[in-house]
Amino acid sequence: MSLSKPNVSDATKTKGRVDVTPSGMCVTCLDGCMGLCEVGQSAIKGRQVLYPQPFGKVTAGAEKDYPVDYSYFNIQGSCVGAVGIEADSDKAVFPVVDVSTEIGAHDKIKMKVPFFTGALGSTEIARVNWEGMAIGAAISGTLIIIGENVCGMDPEAELKKGKIVRSPEMERRVRIFQEWQEDAGEIIVQYNVEDGRLGVPEYVVEKLGVKAIEAKWGQGAKDIGGEVKLPSIERAKQLKDRGYIVYPDPDNPIVQEAYRAGAIAEFERHSRLGMIDKERFAEQFVSEAERLRGLGAKYISLKTGAYRPADLARAVKCASEAKVDLLTVDGSGGGTGMSPWRMMNEWGIPTVYIESLLYRFLRRLEEKGEFVPSVAIAGGICLEDQVFKAIALGAPYIRAVCMGRASQAAAMVGKTVGDKALKDGNNREETLIKTFAGAAALKEKYGKDFERIPPAAIGMYSYYDRLSTGLKQLMAGARKFALNYIDRDDIMALTREAAEVSGISYLMDSDAQEVERILG
Questions:
Q1: Is residue 419 part of a domain?
Q2: 15 and 159, same domain (yes or no)
Q3: Based on the structure, what is the number of domains in the chain?
Q4: Dihedrals φ, ψ of 300, to 5°?
Q5: Do 486 and 397 touch, CB atoms closer than 8 A?
Q6: Hey, which bits of 224-325 come out as E strands?
Q7: Same domain (yes/no): 13, 130
Q8: Taken in order 411, 381, 186, 138, is the CA torsion positive or negative?
Q9: Is the residue at 79 inside a domain?
Q10: What are the average pLDDT values for consecutive 10-residue runs of the chain, which has 520 residues?
Q11: 512 vs 515: CA distance, rounded Å
């Protein structure tokens, strides 16, 4: 049995001519075939087939079947008592379940819901959907993250002595969220190697009033820096001049000639790999965190990807010693706007596995009396049962779940369906209330300002409302009436392997001591 699906995928718009072998190649490779598979398409398009298609229009998530995922766990239910509320059938009802949470080392960021968007960086699909997602996050009372390379990719950005002094695109993104922000949630700006060199943290804190900065070590979709496609040689030259790696080299005369001839239709911009010192990593990160606080950053976050266990341990240690306000760990298979497709499927530690390791490492910190940061888990999570299981698997340390692709999907569907309905309808308010389940509540809350809420934001808000309601139902069934009461005993492993990986009780062994006590 193969866990992978190589050589044929909707992500790369490739398929087999007949049944495929474990290698992904057709059982019979026919001389005369036009090349439907990745091998064949690569013979024509070369490196373009590395990435999900079409760029700027899709997000992608890995399709590999991992031996253990969240489906290998079920949620424990009970008919006894209630935790966090009086055990009274008239009072312990699911609508009163508290799904709010908070993160932070000292000053807390309140969140009305325990899930938030992943980083929306410099890809085109992130840029065009920012307004809806930013407003959706603000009115939902949660976090949103501006991803890497936004300033560097801004065509209108102004630099002085190699540093960003103005970025209209960054200003737009920050302004939209801040305009709608209420008493919960926050905007976080992420930075990578290039962002650091361009002075992005200094710019957003000092000029735009951003309170939260996130150092990016990696993500679950890939173990290299971010990349995007560029449509012209002029754009490629601009970004190379700003310090990015651009391939092919737009300053190479041969490349310039090939571009004029039409042989090269696009370029790629790549970010550099971050480098963590093997021995002095904690000292260096603490120093950087203090530098960011000195700039005026109120909250410090660290985002890491699905690297090897030793690197996860380094991230946990850094987060503890620097007393960060949030550590987000992203398991492999996580979503992307553009990452090498085979890399997405074949590298890194999958989410359940990395969260199981994360729990062990955080428990070690706690046993030693060291600072334990607020933690979020990410990587292929999109529904309320997965949210519950993710929080339970890492309890009591997981404060929230990061959901990038799912949040963006809700916003994009809201935009598509809402815009079509408005085109066909006469009255905007009536049309949106008829179209979206969450629109009436927003109209009641925002009054005249409801007119300014785009369909994408209403779609994301409605999705988050569904998740909240579903999560409340699951928590009520487990008799846990506030999020902080969820623990590892609230889920059970369905296989021995899942139990071994996670440390969660196998269902046939669950409650063994209490069963003996009851039956005598």
A1: no
A2: no
A3: 2
A4: -120, 130
A5: no
A6: 227-230, 245-247, 267-270, 299-304
A7: no
A8: positive
A9: yes
A10: 87 90 90 92 90 85 92 96 95 97 96 95 92 98 96 96 96 98 97 95 97 94 88 94 93 95 91 88 95 97 96 97 98 86 92 98 97 97 97 98 95 96 89 95 96 97 97 98 98 98 97 94
A11: 5
